[in-house]
Amino acid sequence: MSYLDNILFFVILSIGIGYFAINVKKILRNIKLGQDINRSDNPSERWKNMAMIALGQSKMVKRPVAGILHIFVYVGFVVINIEVLEIVIDGLFGTHRVFAFLGVFYNVLIGSFEILALLVLVAVIAFLIRRNIIKLKRFIHSDLKGWPKSDANYILYFEIVLMSLFLILNASDLWLQTMNVHHYTHAGSFPISQFLAPIFNGMNESSVILIERAAWWLHICGILVFLNYLYFSKHLHILLAFPNTYFANLNPQGQFDNLESVTKEVKLMMDPNADPFAVPAPDDNAVPSKFGAQDVQDLNWVQLLNAYTCTECGRCTSSCPANQTGKKLSPRKIMMDTRDRLVEVGNNIDTNKGVFIPDGKFLLGDYITPEELWACTSCNACVEECPVNISPLSIIMDMRRYLVMEQSAAPQSLNAMMTNIENNGAPWQYNQQDRLNWKNE
Amino acid sequence: MQETLIVPTMAEMLAQGKQPEVLFWVGCSGSFDDRAKRITKAFVRILNRANVEFAVLGTEEGCTGDPAKRAGNEFLFQMQAMMNIEVLNAYEAKKIVTACPHCFNTIKNEYPELGGKYEVVHHTEFLKSLLDDGRLTIEGGQFKGKRITFHDPCYLGRANKIYEAPRELIQKLDAELVEMKRSKANGLCCGAGGAQMFKDAEPGNKEINVERTEDALETKPEIIAAGCPFCNTMLTDGVKNKEKEADVKVMDIAELIANAQDL
Questions:
Q1: How far is A370 from chain B (nearest CA, A)?
Q2: What is the pTM of this model?
Q3: Domain boundaries, chain B
Q4: Which GO terms fall under molecular function for this chain's record (chain B) (predicted)?
Q5: How far apart are CA A248 and CA A25, in angstroms?
Q6: What does the pLDDT look like over A344-360, one tens digit per residue?
Q7: What does the pLDDT look like over A85-104, one tens digit per residue?
Q8: Considering the domain boundaries, does residue A79 fall inside one?
Q9: How many contacts, defined by CB atoms under 8 Å, are there between A and B?
Q10: Domain of A388, in residue numbers
Q11: Cβ contacts of residue A326 below 8 Å, gap of 6+?
Q12: Residues B28, A426: C-beta atoms closer than 8 Å
């Protein structure tokens, strides 16, 4: 019967990881709903970007206060997870601090985990203050009304609970070690929790063991719950920031893609030898192409990956000239809407046994309005700001393309501009023959 | 006074069997907008002074398609692009200079895939190279010690990471270059990009050009320098909106250099 703990642990671990794996598959399936785009070029530059931007947090520190606090949480998250490995082994085999044989190195490891745990606590409390007491503009923005606001706070509360459990676990363990209780072999150094251990003085051994066990179980179960919470939250960036920075656009920010389907038609139009009545080659236009994006399936998979990666920090929106001057456009909302719609499309596929049944809704119109799209100046401030290289601008542009090329729904003044370009090669009504008149004026 | 600008066209060059050192892409704004035409002329005066053998397309030039593309009309963009590329390739253009960051970005980044591969430089880069090569010398002259702030055009700065060439030129004038709180990669748009120049702004509580002009005025400048005809228009309007046109001038970098030269 003494294996009951280990079996229970195995079951909980399997459920925790299994459920997460199912949801990861859903995310991948949804991302693959996007159009193809080749981002396999230049692997060395891509690895470098991932190392600098995701691993090295180089864009985070552009706003130093948030950047440094974020690094505490990030390093804490990555490093303390080494400890999770030990916790899993201990749980499966009933050992106590199985890596203790590492000796001094182990002490250094546990000691640094503790210091990081404290730094994470400090940072997370600062984040809560920034969101809820100082109320920084980008955190009380209308984009975040309701669930997104609670989501952000839940994540922070969760981290406080996890770090506190970690420190209580260590403190009770240290107390039991000091009391030479059986099973609790001396291991680790506890620069932080040594100050917590004295609270257990005066308690009896079995109560402290109970506290230690409770903290241990709650901590590991908490981690598994947190892991599974990711799928439902904006917090997926802790995983997706890595592929997202790898697959991000490498071209100059000013370069917008040239639609290939359009190139074909324009070339045909301009070719004097082309027969306008010729039957298109059989493989041509296998799928009737749509110009621009009306829904998430019209976007490419990198744009959909972007949507899942966005953690709604709002740096894009706070730097957007349109948003700053009171227009409806918010680049963050573009990303949030794209993800919400993608999840909706994914759920539709799930309930309809693997096929998407049109639901009469679209990303364009039902989530994102033309008014938002037309407010964009294409200035790239949002792209520049994003700490994980998301491009809200590319989505805005693809949707403008749909509005103009499929719906002819440009604002009147833009139609006039485009008519001028067509008629006289300039956005204003001037005769092309007058183009050099300035020389003699 | 009728000034004599030497502005050969590519057609004239070809007739003489010559290939210019650089093709000056004037752009629609530089050809037709009254304010921008002064920038065009200032740049030509400098080219003439430095004996740069250049040529323009003249009536064979057409809109690059930038505003159409940014408005979402990829068809119109590619039609314009292919017509321009046909002309440029027929003249075997190698190097192109332009005073418009939108033309610059489009020809440099979006034309190659459609068959138009050229070395494209912004006029601030070109002017800097003229100075570096000793083909042009400037002294501060009338701008010595003046406070000048530079507004980064989005399509020159963030879009193409060119931040230093215009600043170095301002410093060559012995002027005091003052930076706005938002500059270079963090620069704020003037409000004209993405085809906004050609439409009214969406409802909001402020115009973007006024917001940006406030950034510029905070530096207490005597001159706001720009490197884009559209930014120039937006900032000029912003200065008027703030009723500061008597104290603060909006000038293109080419105009600063030309004026310093008394050209």
A1: 10
A2: 0.94
A3: 10-129, 138-260
A4: 4 iron, 4 sulfur cluster binding; metal ion binding; oxidoreductase activity
A5: 22
A6: 999 999 999 999 999 99
A7: 998 898 889 888 999 999 89
A8: yes
A9: 219
A10: 260-273+288-431
A11: B203, B204, B205, B206
A12: yes
